[in-house]
Amino acid sequence: MSRTPRPRLAMRVGEHLVGAPPQRATPRAVAVLSTVHGGSTFTWEEWQLLAHDGSDVWVEYDHDTRDVTLLHPTEPWPPVVDLSGLQTGRTLGLTLEGRQHTLTVREHGTGRVEHVEGQFAEPFAVGQEVEYVDLSARGTIVSIERTTGPLGPVTSVYHGRRLDSAEQKRLFGRRVAPRTVPGGRFVAFAVAAVVLLGLGSCAARAASGSASCTPRSVVTTSPTTGQVATTDDGTCVRRTVYGGGGGGLGK
Questions:
Q1: Regarding predicted confidence, which is higher, 60 or 229?
Q2: Which residues pair with 44 in a beta bridge?
Q3: Backbone dihedral angles phi then psi of residue 217, each to the nearest 5 degrees
Q4: 235: Cα within 13 Å, side-chain hemisphere
Q5: Around 117, how many Cα atoms within 13 Å sit in the side-chain half-sphere?
Q6: What single DSSP character describes residue 63?
Q7: Bridge partners, 111 (sequence order)
Q8: For the DUF4178 domain, which residue ranges apply (predicted)?
Q9: What pLDDT band is residue 44 in, cutting at 50, 70 and 90?
Q10: Is 135 in contact with 106 (CB distance < 8 Å)?
Q11: What span, in angstroms and rounded, lies between the C-alpha atoms of 117 and 59?
Q12: What is the mean pLDDT of residues 178-193?
């Protein structure tokens, strides 16, 4: 059974994030979603925060690309209602905050809500499906989501930008994205190889015989003459690294 994905950003629902003045924000909820493309499952998380000016902002973290994106709700012109025609590669002209943008559809799919913490302004529930379209052009990012709530379908449009480590610290007072180890996959492989070699070496030493152990001395007494004799038994005696009693190495 696969494990339910969990949030990975260094934020907690309800905590106060204090960045460079006047930046302050409080995470109110987070959802982790998944989608399947080409037989592989991809996950990401969406945080809804209450900003210092009382507005709602969103932070999205992609578990695969590891991009952190800051998003603000927006009302584009013309309004986006039907997502069916927004296929990957298509261009779309939208006016956002008074500026005209020609955006390209990068991805169009359906996500499933896997995990929820906190209370969203628009309720998210585990198992709920969310249709989404991601568009971009020259550093401008637009995310469109369509959900079905108690009052019917709701389409939301968000305008945002990527956040590097410096921007994360400025807005939230710290880096919130998980740190990555350069060459992480190679390092993990190398560590595994060292462990396996170590286990093989231990096994070889254990099977090597008298070179690493001392024969046991056996003392016997003759029942008729009472004479005491000492002989060497082939059984080896090895001292464990755990000395007993203390429970720790060498104790």
A1: 60
A2: 33, 62
A3: -85, 130
A4: 6
A5: 17
A6: T
A7: 130
A8: 41-164
A9: very high
A10: yes
A11: 14
A12: 50
